[in-house]
Amino acid sequence: MASHPLDSLTAEEISATSRLLAAEKQIDGAWRYASIILREPPKTEVKAWRSGDAIVRRSLSVLWNKQSNEVYEAVVNHSDVAPDSGEHAETQMVLDHLMQQHDRPSFVTHGVQPNGPDNTVERWLGSNAFKAIDTWFGDYRLLQYATPLRLSGVEERPINQALLGKQAEQVTILGVRAPSVAPAGEPLPIVKEASPPATDAIPASEVLKGTWVRPDGGYTIVIKNVGATGQLEATYFNPNQLPFAKAEAAREGGKLRAFFELRAGGYDGSTYDLAYDPASDRLTGTYYQAVAKQRYDIFFARRR
Q: In sequence order, what E strands does the chain have?
């Protein structure tokens, strides 16, 4: 949620923009987004704004029709867009009741990506329960969780044992809470307190390798390998495959950063300057469109 009128668009606002345009203006696969950025309010509104005042948020989308090659701009007023369902008081009441009355809730998703911004229920359960089962049946996905209900009154048992295996020296299990009885075949909630490895101790190759998708336009970066000096073996898809003129990673101020430059396909030196956010498992940063000489706030989500 924005705390200032000039804050960059959040991931939820970007998702809401594309969702609303798809529903109201039939923006589908025949269209491609060039950008979704904040439509800045008039300077008079910004100067008059004081902390605690309501914030009117608008997004500005630039998109073109791939068949007619026509370019359009669209403005979405997010004050008129329904908020994330997880923010409704009624939703919170239902979810809180679920946690208090049921120790093994299950639900099924269809057409929702595991890390998608619209997947509010799974995101909430991920912070308040313990995933036990995650199984796909075609396009449907069955999930089952164990709630902390069985941990009521259970005290933490100290362990202080190093985690064995890869990077074992960097992680120590400090303690654990678990029910004293474990029925056969049922999910068992266990809480572990651990000292995690420092972000800068994790090799860049383990963090960056994979497929990263920019949800506002479907642009994709595939990172196959990270060299010892930070050179990235990476490819760009828009959806056509294009090589990077430059692709490299480095650690700066405790952050893992990735820089990409595009010259092929008419990009003429356009760049991505990204930083890895371990909390969301995303690459966030800016995209500089060299032809239009404009800079946009964007993010890439890891494709599972």
A: 31-38, 58-65, 71-77, 106-110, 130-137, 140-146, 157-162, 172-177, 191-195, 210-214, 219-226, 232-237, 241-243, 246-252, 255-262, 270-277, 282-289, 294-302
pTM: 0.42
Those residues whose C-beta lies under 8 Å from the C-beta of residue 303, and which sit 6 or more positions away, are: 210, 211, 212, 213, 220
Residue 5 lies in a domain: no
Is 189 inside any structural domain?
Answer: yes
The CATH number of residue 58's host domain is 3.10.450.40
Give just the sign of the alpha carbon dihedral 276, 277, 281, 285. Answer: negative
Dist. CA 280–CA 205, nearest whole Å: 18
Residue 4 CB: number of other CB atoms within 10 A? 10
268 domain-assigned: yes
Domain interval for residue 179: 154-197
Question: Residue 293 maps to which CATH number?
Answer: 2.40.128.30
pLDDT tens-place string over residues 232-286: 999 999 878 899 999 999 888 778 899 999 998 778 899 999 999 887 889 999 9
What is the spatial distance between Cα 145 and Cα 129, in angstroms, rounded to a whole number?
6
The number of folded domains in the chain is: 4
Q: Residue 1 domain-assigned? A: no
Residues 90, 150 contacting (CB under 8 angstroms): no
pLDDT in tens, 32-82: 888 899 999 888 888 888 887 888 888 999 888 888 888 888 998 876 555
Asked if residues 145 and 106 have their Cβ atoms less than 8 Å apart, the reply is yes
Of 80, 104, 138, which closes a domain?
80
